[in-house]
Amino acid sequence: MSTSGIVDMEIVTKEVENDKELQQIMEQLQTDHPPGGKYSWVNGRLLYKGRVVLSKSSSLILSLLHTFHDSIFGGHSGSLRTYKRMSGELYRKRMKVDIKSYVEQCEVCQRNKYKATKPARVLQPLPIPERILEDWTMDFIEGLSKAGGMNVIIVVVDRLSKYAYFITLKHPFSAKQVVAKFIDKVVRRHGIPKSIISGRDKNFLSNFWKELFYTMGTILKRSRSFHQQTDGQTERVNQCLETYLRCFCNDQPSKWDQFIPRAELWYNTTFHASTCTTPFQVVYGRPPPPMLSYGENKTSNNEVELLLKERDLAINALKENLHVAQNRMKKMASMKRRELKFKVGDEVFPKLKPYPQRSLARKRAEKLASRYYGPYRITETIGEVVYRLDLSPEASIHNVFHISQLKHKLGKQHTVQLQQFVLTAEVKLQLWHETVSGIRWSTKLGANEWLVKWKGLPESEAMWESVYLMN
Q1: Contact in structure between 178 and 212 (CB atoms under 8 Å)
Q2: pLDDT digits (tens, 9 = 90+) for 445-469
Q3: Residue 346 carries which DSSP code?
């Protein structure tokens, strides 16, 4: 498979010569006293700031848009990222408008992407790291079909440069296997990390994981219970990777593992709005390799010292860009911010996930009416937006909650729960069925469904469940 598109320069030159506006510029540049400016005439090519100029009516536009957006390395990125990638090599008037229109009309994107909405919450950005490749975030993408014997992806992202590694793994896996993969992929290239932010997963909570990183001198920062935004960076990368794989593996889901190396290259060479550059350029101090080939072999003899100085300047600028991005996000979140504060002794209802995902074949609608459970008493205030609750000893989850997941209990009346709900380590409610009060045939499933009443819940919250799931 070719890694770059081939541009027919004869067609480009011919179309530029037939463009009246560009023809005048060419004639001026080819005189004995060419005017100074952003245009230049080099080796029979019209360039704008060093980029190849295309005619407004160029016949190559559609194929170039396909290369920069639809290809493996285009990754079906959004209009801004596609524009940044394409404008780094080519120049054409109204190119940004055409790219936006093309991306909006892309059927693959329309089928596989969704519009993200910003929930109202109190935003507290994490401190910006001082150096690249020292502070990482980590998460898992599970529930994938088997491909090459693998069905899990570990997503590891550097918090400063946004450089990412996508590591395949086989389920079930142990903490020891995760650590081995992490050392092989990350530690051997960049050394022992200074800190790691992870989701509250059983693998991260294991004694082996904590002891290993304690020995290595690394602090493991776990995301707070029920507030995945703590590790929002990796969650966002997960969405990008999943969308990429959906775009290219829809018709061959058992081969997604073959796209992981290319997905990693695509992500790391893609423009990021928060850093105003690509992770590749931050880490290596130079732009990513161009996607297009012009049929010539070019070499660059830059001084190493100059390259390193430029990279240091780029990292300083990166930190400034991250500060600006964080302030922008905080300002946007504050527009929807709801002032809320609790104190020790207050009773609150925590918001929990009422149903485990028991089937990977299809999504299940969460139909239980109750979204909050308790009440539970606040025993400790941790910072401004985090609280510790007096959970029952049977609860196998962390008892620290973000304020966005809590609702203040109003009134003095206590409603006695019919059942003490048990929280599992996977942050789900453990429910038991009590009776089956009905049965029906589901044409969609091709199986019977039972109307199940759950222990501790009223008849009004009985649910139709597949006989396969109940068994």
Answers
A1: no
A2: 677 888 887 665 566 567 777 766 6
A3: -
Closest alpha carbon to 118 in 442, 334, 310, 264: 334
Answer CATH for 340-357+368-414 from 1.10.860, 1.25.40, 2.30.30, 1.10.10: 2.30.30
Secondary structure element (H or E) that encloses residue 106, with its range: none
Query: Which phi and psi (to 5°) does residue 323 adopt?
Result: -60, -45
pLDDT value at residue 20:
86
Q: Which of 109, 33, 44, 31 is nearest to 70 (CA)?
A: 109
Q: For residue range 297-328, what is the model confidence (pLDDT) as tens digits? A: 444 445 555 655 665 665 565 556 555 655 66
Angle at the Cα of 405 (from 404 to 408), degrees rounded to 5? 90
Q: What pLDDT score does 82 carry?
A: 92
The verdict on domain 135-293+303-333 having CATH code 1.10.287.3510 is no
* pTM for the whole structure: 0.57
Report which DSSP code applies to 185: I
Q: Are 75 and 278 in contact (CB under 8 A)?
A: no
In this structure, the strands spanning 195-198 and 135-141 are: parallel
**How much is the mean pLDDT over the chain?**
74
Residue 421 has pLDDT above 50, yes or no: no
